[in-house]
Queue: 2 jobs
Job 1
Amino acid sequence: MTVTVGPPWRVADPEERLGRGLVFPSVGEYPIYDATAYETMMADRPRVDAFTAGLRASVRADSTVVELGCGALAPWARLADDLGAARSIAVERLPEVREAARRLIAEEGRGDRVSILSPEEYIRHDGHVDVLVAEVVGTIGGSEGAADTIGAEVARLGNPGLVVLPGGWETEVRGYSWAGAAAGHLPAFPPTAIPYLDQLRDIDGADVDPRLCVVGPHIHEGVLTAGGVIEVGDYRGLHSEHRTGAADLRAITSGSLDSLLLSVRVTIGGAVVDSFTQETSWFPVIVPLPEPIDVTPGTVLQVRAEAGRGAGGSCLDYRLSWDVHPPDGGRASGVVDVPWRASGLGTNPLTRMLLVESVQE
Ligand SMILES: C[S@@+](CC[C@H](N)C(=O)[O-])C[C@H]1O[C@@H](n2cnc3c(N)ncnc32)[C@H](O)[C@@H]1O
């Protein structure tokens, strides 16, 4: 059964289509966070294990630990407290989320050791910080403003020994066949996306295309090329770096290149969480191209990324320039924008197909 949600997006039961052709809005950058989102992140084993190990390795009895972007559960400020840190400070910009975190800390009787602060309150804190935890990395690494948030804090703290968790990320790109992975299904959101689509519409006050992620067990079936890194964030001590660049991707199979797939590899202490190879709460982002292009092994796809501030402030807009070089000559190229917020509905082939009025299943 297919139902619609206004805007008239196609919503389908994942089981009926064996998990194929499913997309989910990328939500963190808008920012849309609810209790389910925070719980989902805490059920993400690779992520939780990596932060737990990173904190165990770095928290000492005299440590001050800051969790910048603590959400409703302030998990890393609470873990630091459990590990015996002298002081934990948890900072959250969303007021109602901050209140939920405050209630939790009070209920758990941690109020004398763990402070929940707004960014404005925190900025007045000028004490020494040993460990900075800032899980503000997006589905495209810098898309939630991590470069600004972490970079500015590393500079402000000025501690050469500062441990930063995560210490950075790499955003990877691959040539992708969305239609190949969907195997004949039209794109659809799973019902679990409905609350987020509703919130997105409420925030925007108008109907716009969301940034889309691919989900489900068949994601890898659409991969046409090897991966390459197009964005790097790197933070430790006084070091703070964010850059975008280009990658040459060799086709590994034949298919119809209709999109680019962006995934993120997040370095957390000694661990790496990869949204391409692991099942994690970071989902790979899909960027549709205007027209499909046939590729064969030997084809080289060059992709160059640029990131800039737009309407989303530190939540970045991305622009991807692509060139396809088939082995027997000829060339196709173009530029595709991945804005923080699109300027309408049906701005690309994938969202046009997601609108039920345009194509009936
Ligand atoms: C991905 S969630 C992480 C929540 C929790 N730290 C965890 O790891 O489970 C990111 C949180 O950071 C908050 N956030 C993002 N940027 C922030 C900033 N510059 N200052 C304070 N909070 C921020 C968001 O509102 C959101 O609640």
Note: The first strand starts at residue 2 and ends at 5.
Job 2
Amino acid sequence: MFLTVSGYVESEVMGKPHSVIRHPEMPRCVFKLLWDTIADGREIFAYVNNMAKNGDNYWVFAHVTPNFDAAGQIIGYHSNRRVPEKAALETIKPLYRSLLEEERRHPDSKVGLGRSWKMLNDAVATAGFDSYDRFIFTITPEN
Ligand SMILES: Cc1cc2nc3c(=O)[nH]c(=O)nc-3n(C[C@H](O)[C@H](O)[C@H](O)COP(=O)(O)O)c2cc1C
């Protein structure tokens, strides 16, 4: 399914980093949240806009989980993607757009990331949620 949607053949993506399908309009703070969460041993659900080989974009609702060995050490990561609800994307798209604009506003990318990170957390709090997870599941009706 991934190959069909992304337009790549297997040999082009096997062993490659997930960023081969990174869309330039994805805010970096969302990937920071993703990596911070899974490196901490927790799962995350997140909306991601990806770029197919031909430059088209496609949105996914990703469920990313760490894999553990018998000793409880993280030995890898796994992602399941679902088709997102249109209604959820109506909330996510303007949020990501403003996060990206904030990141691009700052010539120093570290400063930009710090600002968009704060914006993301503020957006969750302003919507009345105490965590990103609660926010995500409120805009994701089928879950
Ligand atoms: C299991 C897993 C799945 C991922 N899936 C995607 C994905 O579908 N699209 C994407 O752009 N990044 C995905 N990432 C995040 C990428 O590793 C990377 O952080 C992101 O593309 C940003 O790339 P950059 O740091 O080069 O800007 C995934 C990471 C993991 C661990």
Note: The chain has a mean pLDDT of 95.
